[in-house]
């Protein structure tokens, strides 16, 4: 086999799909079901604009990834017939306090310079016309933001990879590496040793524990994110609404709305806290008061990989040239999945990556570009 | 057959059990699964003191029913081996506002006169010692209050009735009556007509629609009650805590806590509203702040039968002497199930009921005894 | 209001959609959730050919309904954005015994005369090439058969009707009619009386109990159908496979396969029998042996309305000209939903229906056209 | 801390309970929820006789463990109030083929010599009287066999340990050891490094991958076991029925029956195969034909740790005297949990274990005592 990927989440599956398309012989090992961690828990926004209000090394990748999606979605649906729930109705950003007002304007001003054609300032009347249930004095509309069902997208990458010849082994846990004369030649798994020329580690928040076995210290920590879902009798929102207080409401099919997300650092405890349900409901009802009468459907959590400087790790191991690590996408894993699959595939093939990847290198000094939320 | 009971909830099942014990040939028709409505949704308090702060016709029945439970539970467990989750750790009533303070004291004073041996005033220190996670300045402890798993109790009544010879027909819907010369001789159901000498209608909130077919107008309406459940790593409560603001927290096995309940009048819509989840969490966290960190498990709703004067309907039909109606127990259906089974059985057998049942008659004038909450 | 529809299943929802499109003011009452009975339990085949091997009055409606679907699906998706899971990969009919061989050929010969362009006989080699996992000596391919997610289609009809102005009232149970001088002017429901000019009764297997209240005796009975679902790692089937032994296997998204269906007459008991799970698995593994290694996902049941002569009831009440009854579609409710919506709307509007509806009249003599299975 | 236990299943929890009772400071790390693997999947038989027809080193432990349960259950219920579902109605072993007849008699003869007071041969008439729904020509009744709800027992051990001062850390994954000068001083986990004087590895089927990190090669493999559950309207069985064909039917509360179990070697794939559901139903219906009409509830799988010689590993690491390994209980983990907790606690405390533990040593030569099934 050419490439072994550890981790069957959206990043591992996207890399597998891209490599399989390029002709590689790919195997993915996943210790449980596919897409069971952060990949399934995400609300599925493909919002290239959400996270950035100033220049940031991730912006080129975010924009590139966003622009890839329409064609990738079509390709995945063609190959797998999976319902990915994609749409491109855009994202309405709003503010709920004076402090947030300031940040919203900064955000708007920043993006107006970069993508004037895709961002639009809305007055209260304009908001009322477009999204009559949203309580806000004004808003900024990012017209090209898209969204998906994150779990279905992740499964679609996996099944499309399978359609292209990749092999996925669920319930197969990697627990150590096999060395031969200072080189890594394979991985020990609960199904036995699997040998591979190249290895990609894409285990989300669990990645640092693998990296440690290879003398690589990643400055990372888990951040639990909790979401709730409600349904309504009539459609309350067209676009995703993202308040600067951190609360977002993402409209899905069948009048279902996903409301996210908390951020509990340093927690692998995949349960939902009572206070998070309370707080998410409080925030969402402040933005869309009509939500008070929505039907509560449930709540869930996912464990997202965050890094100390807010930048993902995407790169080659400093000693073991055939080992690649890709993790740390935090809240941007769904958005960045498409471009990450391509960049990692370039690296694995030894091609030049068409982006500056030095900010994401595994051995970087901690950077100054922490994300603003 | 001697007796046909319409309704497989806790009231119908309790009546079936008692009648079967007395030798009657009993059939129960239930349109869905047994105990699927209010009987399953209840938090399961057997709190004879909860609802009353002044003299009330239900008090004798409530106290009698409560005192029956220890022996009935033993009998049901013996017959069915169902885990009913019974315990008698008592109920702590507390206040969260000045207005509630006043009501709490009235409540305490009322019960101290009636049952001085079972009620105790607790200072902040005493509460802190008994229930250290509860935030309150003082409380009143009702030491003989009990609780059960309401659904399991309801199923235990049904299976104990079966053990005594009764027949339960789930997925069998009654939709009309069969008359013979001005007498009712049977019931049309989706399994065909069932003939019976006597008929008991115990359909909870759906009872008035049957009663109407018999020219009986019951002054009733449905009240949706919503509950949530959380679990905690350590045990936070020993006793049930019932705040005068209407919020109660009932500790169950495995560190599970049931928090109830909302009261939405005139709703058969068995879904959970977002605002109710928010409000129940808010109230519960005010009483036990540690609940903020509990694991949220889920939410559900039940439709409870309330009457205009707050009194159940338990009695014989004014025209059709072989038809009995029993409904309207609102929040007291679990508590009153034991005594209701006995009283209705007495009526069916033509015996004298050892309580004054006139306040519950089907033809009463609307009374003045509305329940205080 | 113009029209009140009793029943929020696929038939009631389709009628509501069509009437709302034509400008009527429509209300639908449903006693529980929408699409909760047979409409959700169906495997979702739109197989106009499945049920008929000889001339039959339903064939024109079945073919017309099938041909309507591609455009209706597009319309529903446009209006509701619901994922209906529609595809038109066709249906492969096979035989598993000599007796079935004979029936399969009769079936093929019958359809070859009617739709030679849409049916094709396949040799073992041809089957092996198209559906390599199917064990059969030959088969008949019905190339235009389609399939959907039945529950999603039903919800899409409902939400599209809402988009066109209809009102749906879930948890609202109709229990009697309101008469005014020998005319029916409304319906009593658990939300109060609803007045309407015209009333459509579309309650599936529960319809005869309503009809009885209007002195209409329908010769009907419930037939429980049970299904199971499995998932596989790779795609085993492209087309739906329907064996003449009554077992069908319907491929859904994400390598999910729905296997149906049992037929237990006279049962409203919506649970799944152990022997049905056993028998469905046995039959399916005989057709596709590889299914032995599929992951078992679950089982469910639905209660379908069957009539004594196998013909639906679609028509006007003989006495109450403003009351229409539509039920008895048995295994063809999903397929016939589209055309039924149109025909009933024509009747309600007093227009001529472009099909011979006399075989479906409410007062017909029992016919000779029982369906062959 | 004194002792760190890796693994929050029934074995780790039982050891934690016993050590905490003896005064040790105990922490248990579990990578997911407690009792989520084999401990929850088991049918819960405490059948000391099930597995042995000849002398076997496990028999003394099995009998000792079984005799401990009545008092341990009482202790756990007292400490935790968890419903463990214990009863001691015994086990009826039967044969379904001639070959099984021979084995059943051997089994009976073996146990009649050892425990004549607890085993009884039953004629067809006697079986018919005791278990009228069981189809068999004769049977052997093991009157002291007991059963529990395996998951609840596992949680009760954990919560009783907590009541005695132990600390349980769910969602905390151990992934490596910390060495200090050739000694193991702690464990790296996803919550950081935890130091401990002594370490117990009790990870069920996942144990060999930890052992490997300590140069310990355990001859083990996973065996997937699948079960199904059904419910019946009336009680079909009093005792557990265990056929020599490997199928057992365990009666639980509320007329629920657990039917087990398949045995798929070398599989960590925690899904249920379609063919297993089919086969379990077929076997169970052969033993109790009435089960055909039971309601199918669902199916699940667990991954059990089996060893090459069928003997558990319970012992001290040959090099690291402060590390203990306990695994490999295969189908006897629930039964052996009580005695294992005591034996391992003795080892940890440096006391003599009152059984011959050499057959279970970590460095034994593969033995000759493979279990007969």
Set out the fold topology.
Four copies of one chain form a homotetramer.
Chain A: E1 3-6, H1 10-21, E2 26-29, H2 38-41, E3 45-46, H3 59-80, E4 91-94, H4 98-114, E5 119-123, H5 124-130, E6 138-142, E7 146-147, H6 150-163, E8 167-169, E9 174-180, E10 183-189, E11 192-195, E12 198-201, H7 207-213, E13 220-231, E14 240-243, E15 248-252, E16 256-260, E17 264-265, H8 274-287, E18 295-307, E19 313-316, E20 323-327, H9 333-349
Parallel strand pairs in A: 1-2, 1-12, 2-8, 4-14, 12-20
Antiparallel strand pairs in A: 3-7, 4-6, 5-6, 9-10, 10-11, 13-16, 13-17, 13-18, 14-15, 15-16, 19-20
Helix pairs in contact in A: 1-6, 1-9, 3-6, 3-9
Describe it for me?
Chains A, B, C, D: Pfam families: DAO. Chains A, B, C, D: Pathway: Cofactor biosynthesis; thiamine diphosphate biosynthesis; Polyol metabolism; glycerol degradation via glycerol kinase pathway; glycerone phosphate from sn-glycerol 3-phosphate (aerobic route): step 1/1. 4 copies of one chain form a homotetramer. By secondary structure, chain A is α+β, with helices and mostly antiparallel strands. Chain A has 2 domains: 3-80 and 150-218 and 309-360, FAD/NAD(P)-binding domain (3-Layer(bba) Sandwich); 91-143 and 221-307, D-Amino Acid Oxidase, Chain A, domain 2 (2-Layer Sandwich), CATH 3.30.9. Chain A contains 9 helices and 20 strands. Chain A has helices at residues 10-21, 38-41, 59-80, 98-114, 124-130, 150-163, 207-213, 274-287, 333-349, and strands at 3-6, 26-29, 45-46, 91-94, 119-123, 138-142, 146-147, 167-169, 174-180, 183-189, 192-195, 198-201, 220-231, 240-243, 248-252, 256-260, 264-265, 295-307, 313-316, 323-327. In chain A, strands 4, 5, 6, 13, 14, 15, 16, 17 and 18 form a 9-stranded mixed beta sheet that branches. A 6-stranded mixed beta sheet of chain A has the order 8-2-1-12-20-19, with helices on both faces. In chain A, helix 1 (10-21) links the parallel strand 1 and strand 2. In chain A, helix 1 (10-21) packs across helix 9 and helix 3 (59-80) packs across helix 6 (150-163). The radius of gyration of chain A is 20 Å and the shape is globular. Chain A starts with a strand and ends in a 24-residue tail after the last helix. The model of chain A is unreliable at 369-373 (pLDDT under 50). Chains B and D meet through helix 6 of B and helix 6 of D.
């Amino acid at each position: 086999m050419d490439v072994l990927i550890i981790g069957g989440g959206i990043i591992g599956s996207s890399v597998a799909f891209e490599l399989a398309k390029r002709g590689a012989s790919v195997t993915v090992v996943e210790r449980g079901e596919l897409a069971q961690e952060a990949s399934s828990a995400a609300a599925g926004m493909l919002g290239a604009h959400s996270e950035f209000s100033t220049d940031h090394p991730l912006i080129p990748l975010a924009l590139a990834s966003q622009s890839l999606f329409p064609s990738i979605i079509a390709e995945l649906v063609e190959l797998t017939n999976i319902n990915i729930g994609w749409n491109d109705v855009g994202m309405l950003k709003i503010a709920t306090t004076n402090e947030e007002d300031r940040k919203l304007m900064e955000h708007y001003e920043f993006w107006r310079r970069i993508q004037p054609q895709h961002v639009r300032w809305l007055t209260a009347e304009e908001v009322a016309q477009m999204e009559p249930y949203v309580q806000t004095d004004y808003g900024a509309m990012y017209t090209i933001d898209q969204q998906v069902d994150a779990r279905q997208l992740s499964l679609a990458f996996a099944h499309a990879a399978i359609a292209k010849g990749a092999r996925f082994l669920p319930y197969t846990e990697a627990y150590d590496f096999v060395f031969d004369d200072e080189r890594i030649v394979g991985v020990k798994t609960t199904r036995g040793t699997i040998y591979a020329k190249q290895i990609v580690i894409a285990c989300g928040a669990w990645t640092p524990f693998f990296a440690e076995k290879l003398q690589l210290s990643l400055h990372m920590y888990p951040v639990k994110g909790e979401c709730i879902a409600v349904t309504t009798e009539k459609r309350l929102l067209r676009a995703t609404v993202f308040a600067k207080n951190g609360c977002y409401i993402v409209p899905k099919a069948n009048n279902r709305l996903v409301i996210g997300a908390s951020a509990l650092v340093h927690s692998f405890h995949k349960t939902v806290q009572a206070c998070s349900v309370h707080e998410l409901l409080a925030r969402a009802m402040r933005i869309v008061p009509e939500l008070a009468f929505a039907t509560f459907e449930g709540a869930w959590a996912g464990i997202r990989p965050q890094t100390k400087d807010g930048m993902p790790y995407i790169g080659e191991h400093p000693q073991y040239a055939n080992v690649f690590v890709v993790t740390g996408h935090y809240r941007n894993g769904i958005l960045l999945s498409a471009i990450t699959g391509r960049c990692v595939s370039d690296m694995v093939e030894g091609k030049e990556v068409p982006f500056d990847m030095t900010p994401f290198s595994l051995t970087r000094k901690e950077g100054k570009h922490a994300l603003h939320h």
